[in-house]
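User: As part of a screening pipeline, I want to sanity-check one entry by hand. Below is the sequence and the SMILES for copper (II) ion. Please return the complex as structure tokens so I can compare it with the automated output.
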Amino acid sequence: MTHLTAHPTQASLSRRHATGALLAGSVVAPLLPKLAYAKGSHATSVPHPGTYAPGRPGVDYQPTEIPNGYKLPFIVRDGVKIFEIVIDEFDHEFMPGLTARVWGFNGVGAGAAIEAVEGDQVRIYVTNKLRAPTSVHWHGFILPSGMDGVGGLSQPNIPPGETWVYEFPLVQYGTQMFHAHHDEMAQMGLGLTGLFIIHPRRRQPNPAARDFAILLHEWKIIPGSRRPDPNEMTDFNIFTMNGKVFPATAPLVVRTGQKVRIRFGNLGMQNHHPMHIHGYSWKIVETDGGVIPPAGQWPETTVLVPVGTTRTVEFDADYVGDWSMHCHMLHHIMNQMGHGLPNVIGVDPAQLEARVKDLIPGTMVMGTTGMGDHGQHVTSGHMPVPENSVPMVGGEGPRGYIPMGGLMTIVKVRDGITSYGDPGWYENPPGTEPRAATPTEIARDGIGNPSIAPSAKTVAKANTFPPPMNHQGH
Ligand SMILES: [Cu+2]
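Assistant: Here is the complex for your manual check:
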């Protein structure tokens, strides 16, 4: 029973689990000491320790899609899955028009992913090409303390130019993450964050046909600059899904009737993201702490993804269409939103422009009716902005300009598709889209009649508290 004393949590091993562990673990000599773990809230589908062949994509698990992201390849040597992480500085495009020099894993800013299977033994080489020391932490993993990746605590930092190796067994499944754990605010703020998907060894009942993972991140990139500012504490202005902002975010393409799983992770510095889907409700089935039993899952249309966590949702794609999926913190769907500006909502621009133009010729007053048309002015080129910036820029939609950016993508549900390439825009069937009302309809239904639409004044009066005194009652 010597291996059962290898980890502090083993004191809490139940007799049932200890028995399973002994049966499964007594067979082979592992590369590293195999560890037994009490089954906490994290998810397992088979006993640990155990000896399991490296999980094969398409056979032992259905690979997860990383829209816009990059999945690290692996090789298998002597039963160990080997990955190579390269930490470097490079130019990363957030969308056409905005590129910045970030720090990231394998050439991707906040969009790299590792995928493996519960029971795999993983060996991960980390090459540090930065001029700064760094380390890699495996976020949400049950592993030996020394492999936890905290610079100065569980290991010395990896010096510039060196390649270090981590190795541990995966004794859980779920949606985990990895990130630099030295000089955290700077290194993560510059993009050293990634996803780590661990599939269950034993296939779970009724798995999702479509499985997506999206890492949320936030950056401060001053318009016109080419470096994210790692000193920012609160005022982030670029919000990414796997490193991209809308309209550069890839749509999630789904066939009608399929079960869909979306794994959200958030390794930003500061912000929580209430991710909202249109046209559907979903259930939160997992966190980075483990699986939520069915009885504990409740339906929502918005899942809060707090910083430092993952949330996995599932729903059945029963409704065809183009459905927006976005963060409901509304400045998180604004690219490089300008704020701290004078509030000119409701101002008559003609008068203001006439007076300011004496001082500054060519002045164009914007924002008097909101900011919805700002991005369109920028996109069409008649509103000058700093080079390499996308201030409040959105994208062209099939029926007009979509003034959203940042944490926004589109779930495209289509009948009978055989390819998951972008199917283009959804054509609303006749009669299923709003339009201008005809005079006949307006007259027929009494629109404009005070009994249907009382004036704002009438409504305000009725809602006055205390109600107007009824003098006749005295
Ligand atoms: Cu948000």
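Points to compare against the pipeline: The CA atoms of residues 285 and 292 lie 5 Å apart. Residues 1-32 have pLDDT under 50 and may be disordered.
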